[in-house]
Amino acid sequence: xxxxxxxxxxxxxxxxxxxxxxxxxxxxxxxxxxxxxxxxxxxxxxxxxxxxxxxxxxxxxxxxxxxxxxxxxxxxxxxxxxxxxxxxxxxxxxxxxxxxxxxxxxxxxxxxxxxxxxxxxxxxxxxxxxxxxxxxxxxxxxxxxxxxxxxxxxxxxxxxxxxxxxxxxxxxxxxxxxxxxxxxxxxxxxxxxxxxxxxxxxxxxxxxxxxxxxxxxxxxxxxxxxxxxxxxxxxxxxxxxxxxxxxxxxxxxxxxxxxxxxxxxxxxxxxxxxxxxxxxxxxxxxxxxxxxxxxxxxxxxxxxxxxxxxxxxxxxxxxxxxxxxxxxxxxxxxxxxxxxxxxxxx
Length: 346
Ligand code: SF4
Fold this sequence. Notes:
Helices cover about 40% and strands about 20% of the residues. The protein is α/β, with parallel strands linked by helices.
């Protein structure tokens, strides 16, 4: 199967008159200047330098609200991308935008170009969270935008954030459940971090907002991610991508940022899963065989879960076995073959 490659072009904060409390797109994208034509071309050509048709490649306009950019500039960007898509036989164009910047007219315009996917920054499906985050749109705008996109053959992506002002674990889980019901093709989960030069930073210093701790963000996400996995929704990203600006002490003032956030979440999910199997097996001693990748996840970052099991005195043993594809559970000399191993650990 061909690997997928996304060429991300960040139209930094362009097209967005809004100022969501958490947003400083210039820092999130790591780009202070917007791309001009020469830069876009250089950037794409750089990515395509070694391209031999061996990957599925999309050109993506991320960072601002693409469909809010002046129509002439949108055309300009889309024409450039279209040229490369035709020349190299690439997959298509991916854009991200706000839910209230999508309607039939906008989609008709996008469909004149090889736009394959639209990702909506949903962030939350709770009115109070949207209000407190100054999103300036309502939950119903998300449903309207989704309905418009579903009438086309454009792939739908829905991004959510956790830990926004007035958010709770229950609200985040409800947002994820509602997203699942909308059946998007892809999703992304971003824990809220406090970026420099944002309203959230001011709120934080005034004691009006406290970010989730890293452990809380891992805990919340470990309850949300399986909802998407179970529904076969492709999770394109969990946690902010590391850039020079996206780092504690650089662009990030505080919050649950970790460069390997998804890995930490999946380790927690795996740990909870093995404890569940252990309990279901009547707390009898259990040995778990795992391939190299899953073995690392079993023991956890900095051996967190290996230590956890040791400190609790649980009779659970981990063994590495590169000949197996996934996980094998053995107890009392017998393989436990009547257990369901979630797809994400297979
Ligand atoms: S709508 Fe998007 S780009 Fe605009 S301020 Fe909010 S998060 Fe930033």
